[in-house]
Amino acid sequence: MDQSFDYDKLSQEQQVIVANRIASDNLQRSNDHYPTATVRDSFYSKYIKRAIDIVLSGLALIILFPINLIIGIVTFFDVGTPLFFKQKRIGKNGKNFTMVKFRNMNNNTDENGVLLRADLRVTKWGKFVRATSLDELLNFINIFKGDMSLIGPRPLPVVYQGRFNDYHELRHSVRPGLDCPLRDPSKVMTWANRLENDSWYAQNISFKTDMKLICLLVREVLFGKDKAARSEGFSEGTFMGYYEDGRVMDSNAIPETYISDFYSHSEE
User: Fold this and answer.
1) DSSP structure class, residue 260
2) pLDDT tens-digit map of 209-228
3) Model-level pTM?
């Protein structure tokens, strides 16, 4: 692929077409490169984990109400209305739910009326709330409702549905969470590491595992190496699917065969 190709210049429809092509070619064969596994089913995962989520998220909503009120007021003066960003996300067993966050990006466009990249639309206030994870506080509503858990794979937008092989689909066998930190903090948060870690979590849910990951999550929020990148709106690219050999593919390295017919159009 030509390194100058910018995946973000493709329309959403074109991006979906590219992902569907990749899935058609490689999704089923990628299963041959991964083990067969099942989600851990225990008394803790069935009952105790949910009880903890209800109690802690309920307390958090009460305690954090004044902070959310202040964030809402600042957001109003920063980006105006609507105050909230709503997006459908993939939940447990593939059931979709609506995630609500305070907005932290403006709607600035280029000369053609196309929205600018996320990192160019994040406001100064937005960078602050992202870096401090204050934009995640409303997620406690989803946790209290049962859409999410405190710890679990981060819920992805519904556009990602249909891109996961059987092993990585394990991440959707459990409730999504605020985050599922890499159990090895020395690793870099790539899509390959994220999906492997999420599938590992589904196979190893326990009170001990959740306590360890909560500690890692607190450390990441306070001192994490990806805080600056998150505040600027950068990411490791978009998960696209798999290569022929089963490796995870992201939008930074799509084989040219999948985007060649869009390439000349995107450069015009």
Assistant:
1) H
2) 999 999 988 887 666 655 55
3) 0.85
